[in-house]
Amino acid sequence: SIHWLSIWVGLEINMMGFIPLLIYRGLTMETESSIKYFIMQALGSSMLMFGSLLSFNLSLSWEAWPYPTSPLGLTLIILSVFLKLGAFPFHFW
């Protein structure tokens, strides 16, 4: 994908399909882990949108890799993708 909005939509569709698998039997531990997972994914989504808005503010483009981009925006985007993927050290859920 070349636009941040497309990347965000794809990650959110993945999350919506994965959460019902976490609470399949409805046990207490499953419910707790699904709530933690949802909160971490919501935090990652908000960071991704904030970082993409910072990058958009400087480049006036929604493309994923425009040359003049905000270093803070790019850092937030990368950290949020790591958080949403559960990569080390962002696997808190």
UniProtKB/TrEMBL annotation:
It is an enzyme of class 7 (translocase). The keyword Ribonucleoprotein does not apply. Its EC number is 7.1.1.2. GO terms for molecular function: NADH dehydrogenase (ubiquinone) activity. InterPro entries: Complex_I_Subunit_2 (IPR050175), ND/Mrp_TM (IPR001750). GO terms for cellular component: mitochondrial inner membrane. The keyword Membrane applies. Keywords: Electron transport, Membrane, Mitochondrion, Mitochondrion inner membrane, NAD, Respiratory chain, Translocase, Transmembrane, Transmembrane helix, Transport, Ubiquinone. The lineage of its organism: Eukaryota, Metazoa, Spiralia, Lophotrochozoa, Mollusca. The chain crosses the membrane at residues 6-25, 37-60, 72-92. One of its GO terms (biological process) is mitochondrial electron transport, NADH to ubiquinone. It catalyses: a ubiquinone + NADH + 5 H(+)(in) = a ubiquinol + NAD(+) + 4 H(+)(out). It is found in: Mitochondrion inner membrane. Belongs to the complex I subunit 2 family. It is a multi-pass membrane protein. It holds the Pfam family Proton_antipo_M. PANTHER family: NADH-UBIQUINONE OXIDOREDUCTASE CHAIN 2. Residues 2-93 form the NADH:quinone oxidoreductase/Mrp antiporter transmembrane domain. This is NADH-ubiquinone oxidoreductase chain 2.
